[in-house]
Amino acid sequence: MNAVLSERINNLAVSQTLAMAALARELKAQGKDIISLSLGEPDFNTPDFIKEAAKQAIDDNFSTYSPVDGYADLKQSISAKFKRDNNLDYKPSQIVVSTGAKQALYNIAQVMLNEGDEVILPAPYWVSYYEIIKLSGGVPIEVPTSVASNFKITPDQLENAITPKTKMMWFSSPCNPSGSVYSEAELKALANVLKKYPSIYVVSDEIYEHINYTNSYCSIGAIDGMENNTITVNGVSKAFAMTGWRIGYIGAPEFIAKACTKIQGQVTSGANSIAQRATKAAVEADPSVINYMVEAFKNRRQLVYNLLSEIPGFKLTLPEGAFYFLPDVSAYFGKTIKGKEIKDANDFAMFLLAEANVATVTGEAFGNPNCIRLSYATSEELLKEAIKRIKEVLQ
Q1: Where are the beta strands (DSSP E) in 109-214?
Q2: Which residue range(s) make up the domain with 327?
Q3: Same domain, 248 and 142
Q4: What is the pLDDT of residue 332?
Q5: Quick one: pLDDT band at residue 190, thresholds 50, 70, 90?
Q6: How far is CA 81 from CA 11, 46, 146, 334, in A?
Q7: Do both 124 and 212 map to the same domain?
Q8: At 381, which helix (H) or strand (E)?
Q9: Could you write out the DSSP letters of every residue in 40-106?
Q10: Smallest Cα–Cα separation from 35: which of 391, 371, 352?
C-alpha cells in the first residue's frame, strides 16, 4: 500500500521516542513488568494555580475560536516573560502561540526553508528536528560531539559546517537528549561566528530553560547582534508539567512571526482556548513556583549519575539541565550477551527492553549512534530498580 501514499510520508521516519514508548506500553499490556525511561515527560501533576486558571476559563466561556497567533493578553504576558527571564525584547506582534513547541518548529521550517537549504544540527539533537527539516525540503547537516566535549560544538566546528547553502542552525539548551547547557561565554563564541554570516538564522529551543542546575541561563537571542537572526522557541510542557496541554510559542523577527501565523491559519488555526488561559497563569508566575520539581530532578540526576557510573563500559557526563542522560555504550558494540549480538545502539536499546524490561531510546535517533538516552523523569524507586536491572543483565 506504500505506493498509494506520498513519497513525503514514505520517506519520513517514525519518532523513535514515541515508538519506544508505544512498544513499552504494548509489553506492559501483555503483563510484562516494563520500566519506561523512554519519554521526556515530567511525572508531576500540573500545578493547582494553573488548573484553576483553566477552570475559570471554562466558566468564563472561552469556548470560541482563538486568534490564530494567540490571545493578545497571553502574547503580552509571554513578551513580559521573555524580558524577565531571558532579557529578550519581543513585542507581542513578534510572538506566535502554537499547539506545542513541536508545531512551532514545524511552522518555522515550513516558512523558512526551500529545497536544498542546509540546516546545521549540533548532534545530539532532539529527535524531530532532523525529520521536520527534511520534510520541509531542508538538508540537515550534523556536527558531531561526544562525551569528551560535554556534547557541545566548538566555534571552529560551526565555522567548518557553514557553506553557501547554509540557511539556519537549530539547537536546544538545555539539550534534549544530552542535558548540556551552553554557557554565556560559549554562546558568545558561537555568535561571533554566526555574525559573520547575516543570512543565517538560528532556532534556539529553550523548552527546558527552567530545568537547569547551573544557576545561570543565557539565550543566544539576547547576545548583541543576534536579536534579528534568532527565533526563540519555548513552551510550558516541561517546566510546568503541562505536556498534554499542548502549548508552545515563539519569539521571532516580525516577518517570520507573520509567516508562521499565515501557515498556522491554513493548517490548525489558533491553539486550544482553555490551554492558552492556563498558559497565561504559568508564564506570569515567578519561575520559583516550580523549584520543588527542579530540586527533585536534581536529586534524581545525582542518584542516576552515581548508579550509572558503577556500570562498566558506560561513559557519561553529569548533565547540566533537562532530565536525561546520554551514556556512551559503544564499549558493548561487537559483544554477544545472553546469546544476542550487540552491533549498535539500536541493538543495545532493544536488548535492554527484552532482557532487563527497561525501555530506553537509541542515541542514533538523536544523531549520536554511540549512545542511548535515558529519562530520569520518574520516581527514585523506579530509577534504582531500572538501573539495577541494566547492571545485572550486563554482568
Answers
A1: 118-122, 139-143, 166-172, 201-205
A2: 7-45+290-394
A3: yes
A4: 97
A5: very high
A6: 39, 19, 33, 50
A7: yes
A8: helix 380-394
A9: ---SSPPPHHHHHHHHHHHHTT--SPPPTT--HHHHHHHHHHHHHHH-----GGGEEEESHHHHHHH
A10: 352
